[in-house]
Amino acid sequence: MTISIQGAWGSGKTSIMNMVQNRINDKVIPVFFNTWQFSQLDLGNNLPISMLKVFLNKISNGKIDALSQKLLKLGKKGIKILLNAATRSISGGLLEGPFDKDHPQEYVDFTEALEDLHSSLQFAAEECCNNAGKDRIVVFIDDLDRLVPSKAMELLEVLKLFFDCTHCVFVFTIDYDVVIRGAAEKYGFNLNDHSSHGQKEAEKGRAFFDKIIQVPFKVPVVEYDIKSYLVEVLQKIDINPNNEDMPKYQKLCALSLGTNPRGLK
């Protein structure tokens, strides 16, 4: 299962993810992956492989030699070929990615390698759960929307392709608009094209995203009660508002910044 915590920049997605993680930490096997940290290490082009390695290392207690070899066997080129094929499979043919038709044997070889790796991932996940006496692994993926949109899209495709395993649940934070821009960038449709053809193309991108995400959760920013938060941050800058002034501060913020916690801060 894949679950998304969706919201704009600064809306509190990471805070909600951390609250969820703290609540269930002792009931599941947690794996945390921060895509922003990895991208800052100039691993942008290798993010899918990096994420696979983090996952494997966590669930196999560092004993990943055999699985690592299978991962390396795929390599960047193999993952790219498989992602292109998976795009058509996941979208039911709605989206077309580039595919090297001149080398069909490579596709066959990589498909076999993928099946081998997927079987190994499934076995490792089951063994990990049995050893820990728990029934699921929950992978928390943060800051997906801070990547270049096309990279965020690629990481979502990897999730669907590699991690469709029993016992595995993925929870990630994302700005929905970033993913749609990534789909537009990758598959060449224009989000500003308001013609019937343009709207149809944009709908394909949204359908692709919706097929990857089973449970979307939208951060309820409009329902935030900002009074207590405002009191706290104002006191940090030596302002102690009284009951008469506080409604003015709240109204001022509501009419300018809204209720976005990071914007308020």
Summed over residues and divided by their number, the pLDDT gives a mean of 75
Low-confidence stretches: 89-100
Per CATH, the architecture of the largest domain is 3-Layer(aba) Sandwich
Number of domains: 2
Structure description:
- The chain is of the alpha/beta class and 265 residues long.
- It has two domains: 2-219, 3-Layer(aba) Sandwich (Rossmann fold); 223-264, no CATH class.
- It has eleven helices and five strands.
- It has a five-stranded parallel β-sheet with strand order 2-3-4-1-5, sandwiched between helices.
- It is flat, with a radius of gyration of 21 Å.
- Residues 89-100 have low confidence and may be disordered.
- Residues 2-264 form the KAP NTPase domain.
Summed up, what is this model?
With 265 residues, the chain is an alpha/beta fold.
List keywords for this structure.
single chain, 265 residues, alpha/beta, Rossmann fold, 2 domains, five-stranded parallel sheet
Protein topology:
Layout: E1 2-6, H1 13-24, E2 29-34, H2 35-40, H3 47-59, H4 65-91, H5 104-132, E3 137-142, H6 149-162, E4 168-174, H7 176-187, H8 196-212, E5 215-218, H9 227-236, H10 246-256, H11 261-264
Parallel strand pairs: 1-4, 1-5, 2-3, 3-4
